[in-house]
User: Fold this.
Amino acid sequence: MLKIDGSQRSGSGTLLRHAVALATLLGEDLYMWNIRANREKPGLRHQHRQAILACCDLSGGSAEGAEVGSTQIRYRPGREIKGGDYEWDIGTGGSTTMLAMTILPLACFADRETTFSLSGGLFQDFAPSAYHMQQVLFPVLSRMGLRLDLAIKRPGYAEQGGGTIELKVKPLEGKIAPLKLTTQAKVERVNGIALSSHLEQSKVSERMARECERTLKAHGYQVEIATLYDTSAAHQGAALAIWAKAKTCFIGSDRAGKKGRRAEAIGEYVAKNLINCVAAGATVDKYLADQLIIYASLAEGISEYLIPEITEHVDSNLWLAEHILGTKAEIEDNRLRIDGIGYSRDR
Assistant:
């Protein structure tokens, strides 16, 4: 049985999500306590509970303590990971992308193609946006042999949610390939999307895009940001996402709207975040840096990429991968090197 103290390192939900995913892949029971001990509201939130239940559905497993507010769980994965069609609704503005992060590694090793329909929040603080997943994470994972697709069916924002994304995952043919991104290509072009729902009268999308473009162009970038106005969302909301276009550089930046947060401030923040990341000499952004760790740890061979900084999530995910999988990793300057275990379902 895997035993994880959830207060270790960041003490955040990322430990719970990845621990449940890895336990499922290994077919080992998991006991985890002190879940999200270092967060303002400890214990499971709606999105964490749904992540556990989704793993149960995919593998035919079971869980004790999978309730909102619970600080400990006992999870018993089933023996198979079954593809097919699945639909889950978090029921709040909880992050659909965080839920997706849990189940995507499982779907890569399912017995057939899998389609997920996930409802909840798509754009909020402290979670990757659906655009970042679609335009930054997935292109990198495709270099590792994964075949993934994401479509945004309906926007949804914190706190009410109501958004929906659809993901399609084809099972891997063999093992995950290692990732090599050790030289930053010159970033000349930046693309993006400025989205707002029920806010066309205030020109929110245009204002976010205009300020973001102004800041980026002042630093020599070519910029193209599409402006979208949506009326299908259940409530008002906004989000801006941009991403660099370069062969060996996968850097994105995004921010959600929030009451009292001006559109121009969002545009400037998103632009400066990307500019600073590129200036750090990185080949991935700080969010991608931790998101890739689970895949690099499962890959066959050594993955290397340049990160802008060592965040608490990078530290947490490296610790968890070593604790559960026995992987070895090292960081020298800003180069992260991970020796994967070459995972396969028949190992």
Notes: Residues 263-279 form the longest helix (17 residues). The longest strand covers residues 189-197. DSSP finds nine helices and 16 strands in the chain. The mean pLDDT is 95.
